[in-house]
Design goal:
alpha+beta; PmbA/TldD fold; eight-stranded mixed sheet; 21% helix
Length: 482
């Protein structure tokens, strides 16, 4: 595959590209799902191909091919150059690239057991045991369990001299317990909703979830939710668990800080942003409790890698420091648009060889503070604690949002009380983050993977992650106003 990438790169340069890079990929995926005592699906696939990106006359061109013979690779490279020349006739601003050191390197996700070496029978046995354990709980309608695995090997070469090889391993696993009654469907998920825990690593991470032991506990909660009261409409104090804080970071911080959105490159499909490039250094995004960091090196996180798809090394970069916006997610092109001294912070990725890279989140974390969940609850006279996302909605500028969670608990006089169902909350991004007056500390900070972040036209699905701990917000609208 590397030799094919070299061939495509050489052909692009010979055809007139001022800059060119080639990505050769082989990706294996596996999705396994069971419901009750039945296998719901086993989906395995492999894709391989080469994508060529070029700059000609200060405009981009891209082409990819699944045909892995020399002539097909040369044809794809020439096609990318032809597209760039055509694009140059309609470009408004010449493309400039921020500098990056061209490296020769190899990087592999740390892992013990390659999930693709584990027999299918062993995986099914684990999932069926988990659903069987959940369905011993009286009143449960049914349970689902799933595992996912991704194994991506990629080679990146550029006309600047980069020669990079990466083997990236991702796994996921989880259980969903559903109860039905009196016109209600209630769900409790472990360890998170939407395919459970998703991270970088091997099969050992799925085993460590202990799905069989955890399933009955969450089944009991799903049944209990059927008779729980709805969260009433109120403006009150809200405490979110770490997984919901992670999704809040994703939707109301990660996406609006993507520079292609900010500069108008992604307006057609993924929306724009209320943030402008001039906001860096002064915009009050949140309270002093809120510090948010881009860190593509986080161990075990779904967005961890050695290099992005422009050859920029993974690193750690502050985005918001004690509530003030300091930086955005950038590529070599968008970083150059900010000024001569700017460099990319390594967020350009494509979901396959067939797509051109876009600015994508990797790992974006809300940094832990000094509190604990216990202390946050104890310092709350009245309010609600919400856990595990169930639904989300946010406008195209990333200002107004509404989220729903699987379970809520009333807080009275500093103590968690009765369980409630159908918990929702709404807000506006900077007002909401500005109301944050407490974040739990490192002992309760966890990384939560998001395997289905969508962006681009044509659409691309990317795997990203967010580190977070429980956090408290004052004066938030919860429930549905009638």
């Amino acid at each position: 595959m590397r030799d094919l990438a070299v061939l495509a790169l050489d052909e692009a340069v010979a055809a007139g590209a001022r800059y060119a890079d080639a990505r050769a990929l082989v990706e294996e995926t596996e999705r396994i799902s069971v419901q009750g005592r039945q296998v719901e699906g086993v989906d395995r696939s492999t894709t391989r191909g080469v994508g060529v990106r070029v700059l000609v006359d200060d405009a981009w061109g891209f082409a990819g091919t699944v045909r892995l013979d020399p002539e097909a690779l040369k044809e794809a490279a020439r096609h990318a150059v032809a597209i760039a020349r055509a694009s140059a006739t309609a470009r408004h601003t010449p493309v400039r690239l921020a500098p990056v050191e061209a490296r020769v390197d190899s990087w592999t996700t740390p892992h013990d057991v390659d999930p693709f070496t584990v027999p299918l029978a062993d995986k099914l046995a684990l999932l069926l045991a988990a659903t069987e354990a959940a369905e011993t709980v009286p009143g449960l309608a049914f349970a689902k369990a799933s595992t996912d695995a991704w194994r991506t090997e990629k080679w990146f070469l550029s006309s600047d001299g980069a020669d990079l090889h990466q083997l990236i391993m991702h796994t996921a696993g989880g259980v969903e317990c559903l109860a039905v009654g009196d016109g209600e469907v209630q769900q409790r998920s472990y360890p998170n909703s939407f395919r459970g825990h998703c991270g970088s690593g091997g099969w050992e991470d799925v085993v460590a979830l202990d799905l069989v032991a955890q399933a009955p506990l969450h089944a009991e909660q799903a049944v209990e939710l059927l008779t729980a009261p709805d969260v009433p409409a109120d403006v009150t104090t809200l405490i979110l668990d770490g997984s919901q804080v992670a999704l809040q970071v994703h939707e109301s911080v990660g996406h609006p800080l993507e520079l292609d959105r900010i500069l108008g490159h992604e307006a057609a499909y993924a929306g724009t942003s209320f943030v402008s490039a001039a906001d860096r250094g002064w915009l009050r995004y949140g309270s002093p409790q809120v510090s948010i960091t881009l860190d593509s090196t986080t161990p075990g996180a779904l967005g961890t890698f050695g290099y992005d798809d422009e050859g920029v090394p993974a690193g750690r970069h502050p985005l918001i420091v004690e509530g003030v916006l300091t930086d955005c997610l950038s590529s070599r092109e968008t970083a150059a648009a900010l000024g001569e001294d700017s460099v990319s912070n390594g967020t350009m990725r494509a979901d396959s060889w067939a797509h051109q890279p876009l600015i994508r989140m990797s790992n974006i974390h809300l940094e832990p503070r000094e509190d604990s969940l216990e202390a946050l609850v104890a310092g709350t006279e009245r309010g609600f604690y919400l856990s595990t996302n169930r639904s989300w909605s946010i406008d195209d500028k990333r200002i107004n949002f509404q989220f729903g969670c699987e379970v809520a608990y009333e807080i009275r006089d500093g103590r968690l009380g009765r369980m409630h169902r159908n918990g929702t909350y709404t807000g506006r991004t900077t007002e909401f983050w500005g109301s944050c007056d407490g974040v739990a500390g490192p002992d309760e900070w966890r990384v939560y993977g998001t395997p289905n972040c969508g962006k681009g036209q044509p659409g691309q699905a990317m795997r990203v992650a967010h580190g977070a701990a429980p956090a408290r917000f004052r004066g938030v609208q919860v429930g549905v106003k009638r």
